[in-house]
Automatic annotation (TrEMBL):
The keyword Zinc does not apply. GO terms for molecular function: RNA methyltransferase activity; S-adenosylmethionine-dependent methyltransferase activity. It is an enzyme of class 2 (transferase). Its EC number is 2.1.1.-. S-adenosyl-L-methionine-dependent methyltransferase. This is tRNA N(3)-methylcytidine methyltransferase. InterPro entries: METTL2/6/8-like, SAM-dependent_MTases_sf. It comes from Rosa chinensis (China rose). The keyword Transferase applies. Belongs to the methyltransferase superfamily. METL family. Keywords: Methyltransferase, Transferase.
């Protein structure tokens, strides 16, 4: 498929903003909001666990074939590069990465055990070359407990690795409680982190810590690849007033969350964690609803961020 179908400027975001902000029927989306403590602190993993259990067939999500077009670094990266896919869901992001580059190893985590089971079923059914050595899963809620220690980058470990094989395959981890089935070896940082429609599932209060966790597991010079819901996306405007749980934050009837990002919010979050901004823009795409024939205006935020060398 052509790149334009996935990442294009089918319409001007500022024109959409003016239209929404001048439409009285959307005015409640613009009002200040102070979320209650009970809503802000409630757990986010169980609703998603239930969600993936309901959609156990794996057909709810389609493979994200646009991924390598929007993030070609995943194809052109060095041999043995390590990718951490945060919030892997049913594997719709992992699959094109493993197919598109036989030289990368993907570590995929999710806070939902159901999602991890679906991801493993999807990946192992794909008959990808050497999959048993290049795909590893573990359960983790990075927004609360952080990532496991074997994944984290630290300078002392990096110095040790330079005397071994240069890729962190020499130091054995202690007290590893992850669900990885491979031998317990320290990774010592990853080259890429992908956050694809994951951050929006968290409450805004948890986002700064979560992004700092991503920063901590990356090697210097590593890149974080980001794509998520943008402000005034069609799905945001469909939420009714009683679904608001914060400013630009909404909760679906099944208990799962959705936040809608402005460029300024994304910039502040990632630069506040220490990242350097490489790319950041709205992706505005018109798509056709085949059921009713209506045109839908989708807005996503596309970003690339780098950990300083």
């Amino acid at each position: 498929m052509k790149k334009a179908e996935y990442f294009s400027k089918d319409f001007d975001w500022d024109e959409l903003r003016v239209e929404v902000e001048n439409d009285p029927s959307f005015s409640y989306h613009l009002l200040p909001f102070q979320p209650s403590l009970s809503v802000a602190e409630q757990g986010e993993s169980q609703p998603w666990n239930d969600f993936h259990n309901r959609h156990s067939s794996g057909k709810f999500f389609k493979e994200r074939r646009y991924l390598l077009q929007e993030f070609p670094e995943l194809v052109s990266c060095e041999e043995n590069s390590r990718v951490l896919e945060v919030g892997c869901g049913n594997g719709s992001t992992v699959l094109p990465m493993l197919r598109g580059n036989e030289k990368v190893t993907v570590y995929a985590c999710d806070w939902s055990t159901e999602a991890l089971e679906r991801a493993k079923e999807t990946i192992y059914a794909s008959n990808i070359v050497s999959i048993e050595h290049r795909f590893h899963t573990f359960c983790c809620d990075f927004s609360t407990s952080g990532f496991p220690t074997w994944l984290t980058y630290n300078p002392c470990q990096a110095n040790f690795e330079q005397t071994s094989d240069g890729r962190g395959n020499s130091e054995t981890c202690l007290n590893d409680s992850s669900s990885l089935k491979e031998s317990r070896r320290c990774i010592g940082g990853v080259d890429f982190v992908t956050l694809i429609f994951t951050l929006s599932a968290l409450s805004l209060q948890r986002m700064p810590k979560s992004i700092k966790e991503c920063f901590s597991v990356m090697r210097p010079g590593g890149m974080l690849l980001f794509r998520d819901y943008g402000l005034y996306d069609m799905s945001m405007l469909r939420f009714e007033m009683d679904k608001r749980v914060g400013f630009r934050e909404y909760m679906r009837s099944d208990g799962t969350r959705s936040y809608f990002f402005s460029l300024d919010t994304v910039r502040d979050l990632f630069m506040g964690a220490g990242f350097i901004e490489l790319e950041l823009e709205y992706c505005c795409v018109k798509s056709l609803n085949r059921r009713n024939g209506k045109s839908m205006r989708r807005v996503w935020v596309h970003g690339k961020f780098q950990k300083p060398v």
